[in-house]
Amino acid sequence: MLKIAKVSMAAFFVALILMLPCWAEPTVDELYGKKFGTNLAKGLVGDLITGSDKHPGRGLAAWDIITDADLCKSGANQCYTQVGAGGLQWIQLDLGKKMWLDTVVIWHWYIDSRIYNETKTAVSATGKFSGEELVLFDSKKEKTYAEKPEGHVLEFEPTLVRYMRDWANGSNVNVDAHWIEIAAFSVKGPGAISPREKLATTWAQIKSSD
After folding, report:
1. Is 34 exposed, middle or buried (0-12, 13-18, 19+ CB in 10 A)?
2. Residues 95, 162: contact at Cβ < 8 Å?
3. pLDDT tens across 87-129, in order?
4. What's the distance, CA 123 to chain centroid?
5. Residue 75 reports pLDDT greater than 60
6. What is the pLDDT of residues 147-186, one digit of tens each?
7. CA 92, CA 54: separation in Å to the nearest integer?
8. 3-state SS, residue 23
9. Which domains does the chain have, with CATH numbers?
10. Cα(95)–Cα(125) distance, integer angstroms
């Protein structure tokens, strides 16, 4: 009986140690709140989050785990959402309206520092992603990278954005694509487009159609 108890306690502590990385992770606000300000993607739910697969495969089985600002919850399988089962997959966020953005941070599964294939991040005002988008990162043109707890920080010139999309095609570990969190910031200017900016943008569109 004592031997069984020792084995059970040992198994418990091993499981506890394996889960510690998830419990110990800071929130997005703790990591970047002071540096970048308000996370404009935090709290997006429902139809504002879509993907190449209609239903997320794992984690909490809900898209909004990607925008809850918590990098990990009470266990490894609740830290991420898996999209599809192999092949090139993507996740898209709709901010609900056009905003000035200049920083996006992407977290794929990073606990084992894996390297995802065909990673790409782009932003768009229209959501078409048919050539009008601003590509922030493309591993086909730039170097692939190992995932890390700090996420993949992408800084760019202030741009009017409503949609963000991130792609991945498996990793050096398996064929699946996993996302933990996506955050968006407007460090250099106001997040929401002001009436004056809206008027200026509308006028520019009218002039360009002449």
Report:
1. exposed
2. yes
3. 999 999 999 999 999 999 999 999 899 999 999 999 999 999 9
4. 12
5. no
6. 999 999 999 999 999 999 999 999 999 999 999 999 999 9
7. 12
8. helix
9. 21-202 (2.60.120.260)
10. 10
Listed in sequence order, the residues at least 6 apart from 53 whose beta carbon sits closer than 8 Å to its beta carbon are 83, 84, 89
H/E element, 93 = strand 89-108
Cα–chain-centroid distance for residue 3?
46
- Main-chain dihedrals φ then ψ at residue 113, nearest 5 degrees: 55, 35
Residue 175 identity (one-letter amino acid): V
Residue 88 phi/psi, 5-degree rounding, is: -70, 125
- Give the separation between CA 4 and CA 62, rounded to whole angstroms: 39
* Phi, then psi, of 95 in degrees rounded to 5: -75, -10
Question: What count of other Cβ atoms lies within 10 Å of the Cβ of residue 120?
Answer: 19
The pLDDT score that the predictor gives to residue 74 is 39
Q: What is the pLDDT of residues 58-69, one digit of tens each?
A: 544 578 889 999
The whole model's pTM is what? 0.78
Which amino acid would we find at residue 98?
A: K
What does the alpha-carbon distance between residue 14 and residue 171 come to, in Å, rounded to a whole number?
26
Outline where DSSP puts E strands in 129-176.
134-138, 152-168
Please tell me the number of Cα atoms within 13 Å of 67 on its side-chain side: 25
For residues 147 and 116, the answer to whether their CB atoms sit within 8 Å is yes
Query: What tokens does 210 get?
Result: 């002449």
Task: Provide the token pair at 36.
Answer: 């970048």
